What does this fold into?
Amino acid sequence: MTQRQWFTLHGWISLPIWIVFCFVCVTGTNAVVSHELTWLTNENARAHNPNDLPAKPVAELVASLKAYDNTAQPSTIVSFESYLTTGIMFSSEKVPFGVAYVNQFTGRVQEINQGPTFISFMRSLHSWLLFPWQNSYSVGYYLVSAMSFVMLGALITGLVIYKRFWKALISPKIRTQQNKKTLLADLHKHAGVWSMWFLLVMSITGLWYFTQQILWHADYDIEPHTELIAQSDLPMSQNAQASTSLSGAMLIANATFENFKPTYIMLPEHNRDTYKVMGSGNSIFFDNTSYQVVVNPWNGDIEQLTQPATMGALQTIKHVMDPLHFGYIGGLWTKFIWFAFGILLSGMSITGFMIWGSRIRQQVKEKVKPRATVNPIEGV
Amino acid sequence: MAVRKNTIFNRHKFKLSGLTLLFPIYFFYQQLQIRVSPVPWAAKQMGEFNITIQPVNKEAPYAHDADWFKDFTVFINKGSVVQIRQAYANIGIAPIPIEQLQLNDIGLLHGSNLLQHVHAISPVHIAGSDKVWITIQTWDGTLFTQSWQVND
It folds into this structure.
């Protein structure tokens, strides 16, 4: 293929969908820092700890919610960041479905949110463009994850076109004093070269999300299915009482894994259901639900154990991809790096379109003038 | 990426993908609307319980793994969730025996003490003669079964 053909291919891969791609990049960039934006914009979501108190056990936070609303029936407890309050999803006589923001240091219920949260809205908008879910698939999820093919194609063709790309790394040069087209081409090339690693990470993780959607659609269980409590474990008596409480299940989970940090806890929804305690542990590359303990409330037995060492291939990939895609692999610092490169990537789709626009204008002008030789790669 | 003719389409063809973004706006608008579920079906007595069921939507059964389901909300008007050991729902001409139901986790009533939900086991196509069957087992092992005609 000639250089010009590669250039044409680069354009045809990216230009037809550049607006949607840009939107996915912008919403993704926001989703990366959605926890931090929530902290900045909603004082009730902040876990203030002026007296430097230790975090209370989750069972105490549930008790705080029940003291606040004595009909509250908690179902799920979420705690992803130490600077945000713990979210307790619940229903009560007054609240059909709500999330209580409970300060894990003081135990105070700071807000009852009955609508979507900014975090879940941004992630839904970015991941499936709010397209509805048809049980196991969403057209939007397919659409967004298919962008990974576009991104990978644009990266490969971009590198083929710009063969001496390392020059932009060694001696970056943005020519601001020449014409607009030169400036746009320089910005586009430099942003592309500097974000090569980021484009690759987003492409690979995006390809996984596309694969994951196909697996979901085919009803393939990536995570092992949690079995029901055996019929024999359930007593047949009027005074039946589960022996293991939430605090008991948390003690079991904490004793099972070293440095366990619970992040997502699901409470039993019926008598043959279990406590599902998920969190992070010692493996830094795995997401914050990679360590899981399923506890039988009737006898305290561990029904199922999940941890990185025992995961299968697909399960491992699933738990490694999210921290890479959303940039929380190294905490706040990596989130801000991902945020910055997210802006660069969004900008590249815009500058790419602007370069095409300026070429079109030039071609229209050339129809009335003798044709000049233009180097599409250098943009001058 | 040459433009062969300076037409409106050629100048704007790469902006057409932006129309896709009308979908999130529409779906967001849809999410803001209050969902109206079908009318709850008549309350019926099941031993010490008085139960009302309400289909979550008017849609046909859906597939999950190898089974088909239709979702219902279950209101326990009299009696309490804490009195229930296990409870199931299925759609068909007869209730599935509890010995068979309790082998799997499908068709189990779940939720809070305030409100119960169920993904009722369903045939692929619901016939006019089919009924929605609720089977409740209390802690002493007593079984109660009640049905609602699908066309009720």
Chain A has a mean pLDDT of 92. Residues 40 and 46 of chain A are 8 Å apart (CA to CA). Chain A is about 50% helix and 10% strand. Chain A touches chain B through 50 residues (CB under 8 Å).
